[in-house]
Design brief:
The protein is of the alpha+beta class. It has two domains: about 5-170, Fructose-1,6-Bisphosphatase, Chain A, domain 1, CATH 3.30.540.10; about 180-299, D-Maltodextrin-Binding Protein, domain 2. About 30% of the residues lie in helices and about 25% in strands. The chain is built from eight helices and 15 strands. The strands form three sheets. An eight-stranded mixed beta sheet has the order 4-3-5-6-7-8-9-10, with helices on both faces. Strands 12-11-13-15-14 form a five-stranded mixed beta sheet, with helices on both faces. It has a two-stranded antiparallel ribbon with strand order 1-2. The longest helix has 17 residues, at about 55-70. It binds 2,5-anhydro-1,6-di-O-phosphono-D-glucitol and manganese (II) ion (2 copies). One manganese (II) ion binds near residues 57, 100 and 105.
Length: about 300
């Protein structure tokens, strides 16, 4: 039996406005995918993290921001591609959205899988602990367009069909204990503790999988198990990935699938963010392996 995104949401405890917001955001995969063809280059601009923006980073950011403002459901938005928190004072609801409009930008020009990552808080703004999220989701633009979603009732994966309707692919997804791993940062930049960790799991048979797109690499870990790391580096204690737009929503999904996310010391979903573009070291994946890595990092 075919179950659409809306039919699934109607069976959850999510409120009407939250359901509308999720469906609205998920639907933006259609125009974003259409924009790939004419937005292949890099733009001249740099984002708040000091990274050169791809044309599609800018396009997706502008597009989703417009859609969220027009929805009247979102009071506050924080985007990787905008320097400051954006407020929509006219909104009739209090939802706060954090987003990475296009994750994996360096892969746009080589046509590998990239995605859009979104976290939704019910109220109280965007600077909140990940454990407070009401929903988290990502759209992955691969051979299929896939939506991975949680409203705090487990993780569900949908695929966009030819009628631009999301159809349930798999429900109550559980991340297995697996042996895939990938780590960002150059080996020469890794701390001794992180290098020791990677050596140890390699000796235990862990197999390397790393594309350069967090959302795609995480999707693989979600299905097969293992760990994705972007560690603290010798000269960059925060690593590279951003707490609000990348770590928190993906970590919430991982935890809902029975996995875990750590900043190396403890549960990253318990960390109170202090600024919008704050970075964090991260280890996300199978629960047993994350606990093991925390222990190895302490040794
Ligand atoms: P973004 O495209 O949103 O800037 O994110 C890129 C991130 C993430 O997707 C990926 O895992 C990581 O940066 C890759 O970084 P390295 O090139 O340092 O491996
Ligand atoms: Mn990103
Ligand atoms: Mn991005």
């Amino acid at each position: 039996m075919v179950i659409t995104l809306r039919e699934y949401l109607d069976k959850t405890g999510a409120g009407e406005q939250l359901k509308d917001l999720i469906v609205l955001i998920a639907r933006q995969a259609v125009p974003i995918r259409e924009a790939f063809l004419h937005n292949q280059s890099y733009a001249k601009s740099f984002n708040a993290s000091g990274e050169q923006q791809a044309a599609l980073d800018e396009w997706s950011d502008r597009h989703i921001t417009k859609v969220l403002e027009a929805s009247g459901l979102v009071a506050e938005l924080a985007s990787e591609e905008q320097p400051d928190i954006v407020r929509f004072p006219g909104a009739r609801a209090e939802y706060a959205v954090v987003m990475d409009p296009l994750d994996g930008s360096s892969l746009i020009q080589v046509n590998l899988a990239v995605g859009t990552i979104v976290g939704i808080y019910e109220s109280g703004g965007v600077l909140q602990k990940g454990e407070n999220l009401k929903a988290a989701m990502y759209m992955l633009y691969g051979p299929m367009t896939v939506l991975t979603l949680t409203v705090g009732e487990g993780v569900y994966i949908f695929a966009l069909n030819e009628e631009s309707e999301y159809i349930l692919l798999s429900g109550l997804v559980q991340m297995p204990e697996g042996k895939l791993y990938g780590s960002g940062g150059l080996r020469t930049e890794w701390t001794d503790a992180h290098a020791f960790c990677i050596d140890t799991i390699e000796h235990d048979g862990a197999k390397l999988r790393y594309s350069g797109s967090f959302v795609a690499d995480f999707h693989q870990i979600l299905k097969y198990g293992g760990v994705y790391c972007y560690p603290a580096l010798k000269e960059k204690k925060g690593g590279k990935l951003r707490l609000l737009f990348e770590a928190i929503p993906i970590g919430f999904i991982a935890a809902q699938a029975g996995g875990a996310i750590s900043n190396g010391a403890g549960n990253l979903l318990g960390v109170q963010p202090s600024s919008v573009h704050q970075r964090t070291p991260l280890y996300v994946g199978s629960k047993g392996l994350i606990r093991r890595m925390e222990e190895l990092l302490r040794e």
